[in-house]
Amino acid sequence: MIVAGVMSGTSADGINVALVQFSGPKNGRGARKSLPAQVPKFRLLAHEEYPYPPRVRRAILAAMNAESARVDDLSRLNFLLGELYADAISRTARQHRVKANLIGCHGQTLYHQGEPANFLRRKVAVTWQIGESAVIAARLGVPVVSDFRPADMAAGGKGAPLVPFLDYLAYRDAHIHRIAQNIGGIANLTAIPAGAGLSELIAFDTGPGNMLIDALNEKLFGQRYDRDGKIAASGRVLDPVVTELLGDRFFRQKPPRTAGREEFGREYLARFLLLCKRSPKADVVTTATLLTARSIADAVERFVSPRFAAPLPAPPKIAAGRHKSHVHNAKSASPTIASASIQLIVSGGGAKNPTLVAMLRDELARLEISLHFSDEFGLPSSAKEAIAFALLAHETWHHRPSSVPSATGAKRPAILGKISYA
Ligand SMILES: Nc1ncnc2c1ncn2[C@@H]1O[C@H](COP(=O)(O)OP(=O)(O)O)[C@@H](O)[C@H]1O
Ligand SMILES: [Mg+2]
Fold first, then answer.
1. Ligand 1 in contact with 214 (CB < 6 A)?
2. How far is the CA of 329 from the centre of ligand 1 (A)?
């Protein structure tokens, strides 16, 4: 079966499409009994990226940041994005002469609040991704899985992150501790201890990814982003600014933690500029780039390295002891090899910023962690998240859960998404 995965992230830069061929368990209805025996095998056939037209990007950013918005405009944007996603998928399919049998479309997040909060006297956690899937199904003539996050939230989770399922399948290793580090608008990681099971992952947002760097470039240089990290490479780091900002509560907050435009959007940009005073413009971009790199390394040092060094906790009993296992669990019985090497594997648009990557490599060197690219593992950095949503759609189509409760905080795994039939 060929599945088209479609992703557009918080950067609101555009649409990533991945065409993925799956083989492997088809009739896995109900709970997955064993990993990795029941996971599908997959192969990336093609991937493409389509930037949003500037006017569409402006409309999306305006909707995300709106203090108040018109329902008619939001409704129009939902259907318009459905058309744009359909165009992106059919262009990719035509170009590579591959027809997908199923589509997994994440949609564009307009709002995400993973923690329950009071609203009209009830506590609710909410999320909203747009890009009308009925339109995509009609245009392409194949079913579409969309709206992946609500099922996890209904199960008590934060609805994010959802990529850890792919991270686990792609990166798990018996002897190497691995960290999947995605640098999109926000930067987030999945830590996979050597020999760990799916229930032993650690996943959280480290802080800003490209969001701050992009915003500063737009403001100071009138460019969408710092192409190839050229500006950051030309400036100097303003150390006091980095020290001041890394002292923020967010960076000390224990995982699970999530961030978005609420934390690192407009107001953060204003504060950053204020702290940089009248410094040369390039120095401001260099400083933001280092802040991103160091906040990642700090998060690894604080919250991940200790877990790699400690023996793994016994995996939690699943579903109130319904599937009591008599099988001796070798993974939890043997202490983690504290001396195992640690690899951090970068993906996302930030992997294409050589200055950011060099800074991150330096920061990680002091922790004796080596830096790699997801491309080395068959997951091109700009396609990885799109591949993830192809995988999640494939699992949903086969009635299998693909959320990772240890990452989202949910009480149980959930079958993610809703299906629109053509
Ligand atoms: N050649 C490049 N040089 C520097 N930065 C890049 C390059 N290509 C992409 N990026 C960065 O990656 C961002 C997009 O990353 P992406 O992973 O798509 O994020 P999101 O998931 O939030 O949409 C861009 O906004 C830009 O900051
Ligand atoms: Mg993007």
1. yes
2. 41
Question: Token pair of 248, please?
Answer: 């923020």
pLDDT tens, 109-123?
999 999 999 999 999
Q: Describe the chain by its helix, strand, coil percentages, rounded to 5.
A: 45, 20, 35
Residue 355 exposure: Cα atoms within 13 Å on the Cβ side: 24
Residue 109 phi, psi (nearest 5): -75, 125
Nearest ligand 1 atom, CA 210: 27
Q: Is the CB of 152 inside a 6 Å radius of any atom of ligand 1?
A: no
Distance CA 315, CA 333 (A): 10
The residue whose C-alpha atom lies closest to atom 19 belonging to ligand 1 is 184
Minimum CA distance residue for ligand 1 atom 12? 349
Q: What is the pLDDT of residues 115-154, one digit of tens each?
A: 999 999 999 999 999 999 999 999 999 999 999 999 999 9
User: Could you report the per-residue pLDDT of 259-314, keeping only the tens digit for each?
Assistant: 888 899 999 999 999 999 999 999 999 999 999 999 999 999 999 999 998 765 55
Non-local (6+) Cβ contacts of 244 within 8 A are: 275
What per-residue confidence (pLDDT) applies to 315? 53
Q: Which residue's alpha carbon is at the smallest distance from atom 18 of ligand 1? A: 349
Contact 64, 81 (CB under 8 A): no
Whether 225 is in the pocket of ligand 1, judged by its Cβ within 6 Å, is yes
Question: Following DSSP, what letter does each residue of 176-235 receive, concatenated?
Answer: -EEEEEEESSEEEEEEE-TT--GGG-EEEEEEESSHHHHHHHHHHH--SS-GGGHHHHHS
Q: What is the Cα–Cα distance from 419 to 332, expressed in whole angstroms?
A: 37
Q: State if residue 133 touches ligand 1 by the CB under 6 angstroms criterion.
A: no
Complete DSSP assignment for 272-283: HHHHHTT--HHH
* pTM for this entry: 0.91
